[in-house]
Amino acid sequence: MDAFQLLLLVVVVISTCKWKSEATSCVDSDKEKYNLLEGEAFYFIPYDVIEPNDGEFTWFKSSPQSRNISSKETERVYYHGGALFFFDILPTDAGNYTCQEISPTGECYNHHVEICVFNTSFRADEKLTYGEVKNSDGNKEIECPRVVSDTCEALTGNFTWYKDFILLPGEHEAIMWVENAAKHDEGIYTCICTWRHNHKVYNSSGSRRLIFQETAFFSDANILSPTNKVQFADEGSELKLNCSVYCGKNATRKCDASWNINGIPVINIDSNRYNQATNLVIENPSKNTIATSILTIKKVSAKDFEDKFECSVTNFYRGNRATLTLQRRASIIPLVIGGVCVLFFCVFAAMLVKFFAIDLALFFRPYLPLSKHNEDKRIYDAYVVYQMQKKDKATEETLSRFITKILPTVLENKCGYRLFIHGRDDIPGEDRLELVEDCMKQSRRLMVILTPGSESGPEITDQCPASPQTAILGGFDWQVGLHHALIQREMSVILIQLGNTGPQGYTNFPPGLQHLILKSAPLRWPESSRGAAAWNSRFWKRLHSQDQLGSSYSSAVTVGSVRCQGGDGGGGAGCMRRLHGPEGPSGGWDRPHP
Ligand SMILES: *[C@@H]1O[C@H](CO)[C@@H](O)[C@H](O)[C@H]1NC(C)=O
Ligand SMILES: *[C@@H]1O[C@H](CO)[C@@H](O)[C@H](O)[C@H]1NC(C)=O
Ligand SMILES: *[C@@H]1O[C@H](CO)[C@@H](O)[C@H](O)[C@H]1NC(C)=O
Ligand SMILES: *[C@@H]1O[C@H](CO)[C@@H](O)[C@H](O)[C@H]1NC(C)=O
Ligand SMILES: *[C@@H]1O[C@H](CO)[C@@H](O)[C@H](O)[C@H]1NC(C)=O
Ligand SMILES: *[C@@H]1O[C@H](CO)[C@@H](O)[C@H](O)[C@H]1NC(C)=O
Ligand SMILES: *[C@@H]1O[C@H](CO)[C@@H](O)[C@H](O)[C@H]1NC(C)=O
């Protein structure tokens, strides 16, 4: 072999290799798949063949049996360039077909298509439909499947439309509209392309199923929850956060609620501390569409109080968000302690007030409006009545001491009162009846001294006292006094009880007196108490406070203790008629004339 021959061999080998590598390096495209009806025609150009009439095309069936496809137009199955034709499809046409394309620029492509054949009893089968039309639009647009509309376009066929295999007259476009679609418009819509080939008419069909969806109304994405910016929580306990959005009516499209923590969606946070559950609800019959996302924090930690929780929602048109921070729940212990303190203080204050009520009343009395007694022109502050007869020795002594010593000492000398006391202030020889009547009229109060046995004497109720003496001891004074106090309401009454009432209580008193006793309980003179006789003892304070005695008195003199201490100018003289002169601290009191 000479050098030339060797060179030629090398060139041949290289060129062969190059051709071989070209032949085996065809690019395979994705396989397409069609389910066809027996008896129809099928026209097909692979989706990635740009120029079906330019370039070199070879079609063959690769399975189940390999077979060359003819390019003769009279064959039942034939190809023309990149287009494959089937007429009167038979079940045996099912199989895998390949088209090898050598483009004008020399690239090689393998296009694959798988054909399945069904007989017409399967025409409503899901496999024979080209997808669903399913949306909430009011007017539904149904597109003829692309492979069928391409057929009609390329081969100048005519469209006819069927609904559930019943002709829809007047529909001859590649797209048909179902206006104001309703539930009864649901069904299988078939478009048939009728085309001519070699003077024969063939049909190619494709179907879609229309599924009715209720028309939707999309509102703004209104966040229903959370409504507050702050959520109270307890550290260590479980917490559920509710993110809830109102999307509209029948508005399930893109109606969504979810939680972000510091801007990161919870679903992207790899942590077993959180759990998110979402839910979409259409309420009936309102059709209100609400999406809810519940974020569960299994155990609230200190970090959670610094995090920003964001409820992020969307509906078909819009988005919205609301942020939430956690705050520790205020402890109720300080509140409870505060409450208990206030309660204690109130109880303490109430006890103080109760204990010192009288002192307080006396203290504040001068600041209160003055009683009408201050303006009247009466001479006496009190007219004292008591009962003297039918007493045992001890009672008599007690009464006597009270009347003659204690009352004048305290009320007249210390406090500056003017009293009219029977047996002391009446002048012998004066007209008894006139005197009583007169002195009563000149007195602001009736001071009744009740003694054990006061109730027993008929003299008390006696209308007509037997003698002036008995009258002093009860009868007439009582009558006149009660008359003034009860009927004319000119006098107020102070009841003072000396000693015990006995087992009968006050039941034996005349009804008028009982009435007075009911209105204000008698003050008990604490005979045995040592400090009772002192002007500032509790008894006298009660006496002042119980009646308006103190008020007239305080206007005349000053307040409380100061007032009484100064009032030493009375001297128990006679009928307590006013004297001229500034003995009292008031400085302006008239002393009774003798
Ligand atoms: C297909 O045609 C090729 C030539 O283009 C031939 O070699 C092959 O044998 C044929 N196959 C069948 C099954 O006829
Ligand atoms: C087509 O080829 C696939 C494998 O690519 C095979 O599973 C299928 O059965 C074939 N179809 C027919 C009708 O032979
Ligand atoms: C369609 O095929 C089924 C079996 O797959 C058969 O029972 C039926 O008779 C066939 N129908 C027609 C119209 O050929
Ligand atoms: C399509 O319709 C036109 C007019 O309506 C008619 O002339 C034509 O023959 C029809 N073509 C086929 C394939 O039926
Ligand atoms: C083809 O379609 C036309 C019009 O839709 C119809 O009248 C005819 O019966 C169909 N032919 C076959 C063989 O299905
Ligand atoms: C929601 O659907 C119902 C029918 O189920 C319809 O009556 C109602 O009008 C629809 N609501 C809106 C807002 O479109
Ligand atoms: C979440 O909030 C919405 C709106 O306030 C309410 O309807 C729903 O019941 C709440 N869900 C839970 C689990 O609390």
TrEMBL record:
Task: List residues of the TIR domain.
Answer: 378-543
So where does this one cross the membrane? Answer: 335-364
| Pfam families named in the record | TIR
Q: Which GO terms describe its molecular function?
A: hydrolase activity
Give the GO biological process terms. signal transduction
Q: Which PROSITE patterns does this entry report, sorted A to Z?
A: IG_LIKE, TIR
Q: Where is this region: Disordered?
A: 573-594
Family statement drawn from the similarity comment of this UniProt entry: Belongs to the interleukin-1 receptor family.
Q: What is this protein called?
A: TIR domain-containing protein
Species annotation: Amphiprion ocellaris
